[in-house]
């Protein structure tokens, strides 16, 4: 994945890019308003961060406790070390139930594991039941945002898509009309599915229950109508006690969309009579990230998406430009942990402005981790071209004499060279920007002449 | 005894904006400081470090610490270089104490004026509509003003100074602390994004009536000015030091 190229392609359609920027800025604005209505906002962030830090420091303990309690509650617990194991476990459960079709509510983890294509290859139809997810699924696209999966699409495009897939009236863009059509379509799927898959927002070690947050109630609908509930949970989703949950619920929805709480925060503790709950605890690189001291706190993430909405890069380059399941600033510190070569440009897709760090409800120092990745990536990749030019610059800057001489040459060149040469198409600075007017002398020359 | 200030001038400013360096020097002198400009200054290493080559900035950092050993304060008309010295200078084996001292005594110009000199009644006039670009490293790194993401009392060190000038009209913006897209090597490695972000900042200023765009980081202003001049925008650009220095004369 090459972020600069993808971003440039996205920016070709200026009007669309600026619509995308405005749309997400609107969400960030709502988040600001919601967070500012709570005088204790910063205390909540600190508390949430501390709880997560603590949990991560004893993750093995809390996970085992969680497993034990969940087991006592009648939940079947599995451990998956990576995506392949996770997918295999899901498949086995489905096969044992002779299940050929299932509904799934939004789960970034199953995206991360590429569960849908895997199941489809094995002859199982998956219907994503979250409206935005269903839309991108119709288009054969991944979500472009972790909370707002179809945010890159305009109403008009959704109307066209629904006309084609669901037979809605051509040109009817009324959101209520379109949502109703999706509801009817999904209802049918809900009623026929024997198995429902959900993600997990929080697993509570103390009680062995887990919590799923949605706005559409689709997770609940799916689970309550099905006989078997499979919940897929990243091992970092654990929190120690039920009373810790309030801290996160208050932060999550406000950070994500500016709502005070998600419409549904559903607790799952024990299967109803005759029903089953299967819970898969997935590592998939999380233990490795935990062992990297610079990046371990990225595991505090509660996937609210606020760092995407606030990111001036994400807003103007779109979720797909990152080429990773989790896009945006947090994705750029998680993805290199999975594959440093593939995602090597992501930590550079930032100005290190720090807005992500200030917006993050669990206080992950995202921009500092981007900086740290840069240091590692240049070393690991042995980027020779870049290194060479940087070395050159270093040579110039280190020696005061060389620096003065070359500055002089540079300024002289700027004055005398024809415009066409300075603004060579390969000169990325000059493509869209003029250079400053070169002055007659540098400050240090002036100072030495007049003050020494 | 007036404080002895060592003036640090970023390399690109020395080359392209000597008038800003001079304004900083004159301003500090007018305010009663003893100012020296140690000869032999080099780049602080910030562009290298942000590009992922912090390990290659050792020589630059050592040179910097040695050069400014004697002064009481180091003052620089830039937020990003100051942040770099404070938080990204590499470990200097054998010079730990000096490094710590350097990091403790370096100030960005506006914070030096508000926190150390504690200026509260500047006598000067500047009858213009001024829009301020809050450069990110100064804003969220040095905390020169409150950031819009945080729940904190609002404060703004540059505004504190500019508000003291007679006739100056502060222009409120729709997005008061959005990044301009300069970002060092980002400006060239992510050229398309960088330009788009810069254009958006300029538009925000134009829509809200900015006549003069100011800030504390000339690098961001250089980027904005470059985009503005290419597109024929009428905005004028002055570093905050230039405004204060003009107003005080
Ligand atoms: S890193 Fe922070 S802001 Fe970004 S999604 Fe995670 S919790 Fe939200």
Notes on the structure:
- The complex is a heterodimer of chains A (452) and B (249).
- Chain A has 452 residues and is α/β, with parallel strands linked by helices.
- Chain A folds into three domains: 1-27 and 294-382, Fumarate Reductase Iron-sulfur Protein, Chain B, domain 2 (Orthogonal Bundle), CATH 1.10.1060; 38-284, NagB/RpiA/CoA transferase-like (Rossmann fold, 3-Layer(aba) Sandwich); 393-450, no CATH class.
- Helices cover 54% and strands 10% of the residues of chain A.
- Chain A is built from 23 helices and ten strands.
- In chain A, the strands form two sheets. Chain A has a six-stranded parallel beta sheet, with helices on both faces.
- The longest helix of chain A has 23 residues, at 14-36.
- Chain A is globular.
- Chain B is α/β, with parallel strands linked by helices and 249 residues long.
- Chain B folds into two domains: 4-116, Rossmann fold (3-Layer(aba) Sandwich); 129-247, Rossmann fold.
- Chain B contains 13 helices and eight strands.
- Chain B has helices at 11-16, 18-30, 46-53, 58-67, 79-88, 96-105, 109-116, 136-141, 157-162, 186-189, 191-207, 218-230, 240-248, and strands at 4-7, 34-36, 73-76, 106-108, 129-133, 169-170, 212-215, 236-239.
- In chain B, the strands form two sheets. Chain B has a four-stranded parallel beta sheet with strand order 2-1-3-4, sandwiched between helices.
- In chain B, α12 links the parallel β7 and β8 (236-239).
- In chain B, α2 crosses α13 (240-248) and α11 packs across α12.
- The model of chain B has no long low-confidence stretch (mean pLDDT 95).
Task: Label this structure with key terms.
heterodimer, A: 452 residues, alpha/beta, Fumarate Reductase Iron-sulfur Protein, Chain B, domain 2, Rossmann fold, 6-stranded parallel β-sheet, 4-stranded mixed β-sheet, 10 strands, B: 249 residues, 4-stranded parallel β-sheet, 13 helices, globular, binds iron/sulfur cluster
């Amino acid at each position: 994945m090459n972020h600069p190229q993808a971003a440039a392609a996205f920016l070709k359609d200026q009007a669309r890019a600026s619509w995308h920027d405005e749309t997400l800025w609107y969400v960030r604005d709502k988040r600001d308003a919601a967070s500012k209505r709570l005088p204790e906002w910063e205390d909540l962030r600190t508390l949430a961060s501390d709880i997560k830090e603590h949990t991560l420091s004893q993750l093995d303990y809390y996970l085992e406790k969680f497993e034990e309690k969940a087991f006592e509650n009648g939940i079947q617990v599995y451990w998956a070390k990576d995506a392949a194991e996770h997918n295999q476990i899901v498949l086995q459960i489905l096969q044992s139930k002779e299940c050929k079709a299932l509904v799934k509510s939004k789960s970034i983890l199953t995206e991360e594991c590429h569960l849908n294509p895997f199941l489809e290859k094995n002859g199982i139809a998956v219907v994503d039941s979250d409206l935005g997810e269903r839309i991108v699924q119709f288009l054969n696209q991944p979500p472009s945002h972790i909370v707002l999966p179809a945010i890159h699409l305009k109403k008009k495009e959704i109307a066209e898509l629904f006309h084609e897939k669901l037979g809605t009236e051509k040109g009817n863009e009324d959101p209520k009309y379109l949502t109703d059509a999706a509801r009817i379509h999904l209802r049918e799927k809900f009623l026929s599915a024997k198995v429902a898959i959900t993600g997990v927002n929080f697993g509570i070690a103390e009680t062995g229950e887990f919590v799923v947050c949605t706005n559409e109630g689709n997770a609940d609908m799916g689970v309550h109508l099905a006989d078997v509930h499979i919940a897929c949970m990243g091992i970092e989703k654990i929190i120690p006690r039920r009373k810790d949950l309030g801290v996160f619920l208050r932060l999550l929805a406000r950070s994500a969309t500016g709502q005070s709480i998600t419409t549904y925060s559903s607790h799952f503790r024990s299967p109803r009579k005759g029903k089953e709950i299967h819970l898969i605890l997935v590592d998939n690189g999380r233990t490795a990230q935990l062992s990297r001291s610079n990046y371990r706190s990225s595991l505090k993430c509660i996937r609210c998406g606020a760092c995407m909405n606030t990111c001036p890069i994400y807003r103007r380059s779109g979720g797909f430009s990152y080429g990773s399941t989790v896009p945006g600033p947090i994705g750029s510190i998680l993805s290199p942990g999975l594959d440093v070569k593939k995602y090597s440009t992501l930590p550079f897709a930032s100005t290190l402005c720090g807005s992500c760090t200030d917006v993050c409800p669990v206080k992950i120092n995202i921009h500092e981790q981007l900086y740290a990745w840069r240091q590692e990536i240049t070393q690991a990749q042995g980027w020779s071209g870049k290194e060479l030019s940087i070395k050159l610059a270093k040579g110039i800057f280190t020696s005061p004499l060389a620096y003065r001489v070359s500055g002089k040459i540079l300024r002289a060149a700027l004055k005398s060279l024809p415009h066409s040469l300075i603004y060579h198409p390969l000169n990325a600075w000059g493509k869209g920007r003029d250079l400053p007017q070169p002055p007659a002398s540098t400050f240090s020359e002036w100072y030495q002449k007049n003050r020494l | 005894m007036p404080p002895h200030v060592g003036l640090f001038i970023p390399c690109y400013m020395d080359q392209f904006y000597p008038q800003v360096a001079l304004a900083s020097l004159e301003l500090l002198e007018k305010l009663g400081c003893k100012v020296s400009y140690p000869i032999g200054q080099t780049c602080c290493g910030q562009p290298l470090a942000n590009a992922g080559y912090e390990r290659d900035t050792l020589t630059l950092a050592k040179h910097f610490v040695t050069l400014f050993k004697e002064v009481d304060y180091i003052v620089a008309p830039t937020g990003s270089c100051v942040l770099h010295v404070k938080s990204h200078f590499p470990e200097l084996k054998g010079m730990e104490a000096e490094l710590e001292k350097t990091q403790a005594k370096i100030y960005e110009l506006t914070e030096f004026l508000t926190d150390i000199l504690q200026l509260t009644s500047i006598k000067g006039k500047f009858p213009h509509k001024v829009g301020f670009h809050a450069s990110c490293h100064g804003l969220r790194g040095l905390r020169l003003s409150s950031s819009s993401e945080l729940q904190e009392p609002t404060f703004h060190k540059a505004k504190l100074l500019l508000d003291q000038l007679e006739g100056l009209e502060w222009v409120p913006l729709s997005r008061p602390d959005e990044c301009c897209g300069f970002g060092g090597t980002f400006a060239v490695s992510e050229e398309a994004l960088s330009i788009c972000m810069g254009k958006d900042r300029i538009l925000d200023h134009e829509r809200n009536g900015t006549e003069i765009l100011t800030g504390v980081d000339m690098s961001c202003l250089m980027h904005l000015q470059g985009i503005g001049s290419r597109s024929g925008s009428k905005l004028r650009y002055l570093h905050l030091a230039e405004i204060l220095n003009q107003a005080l004369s």
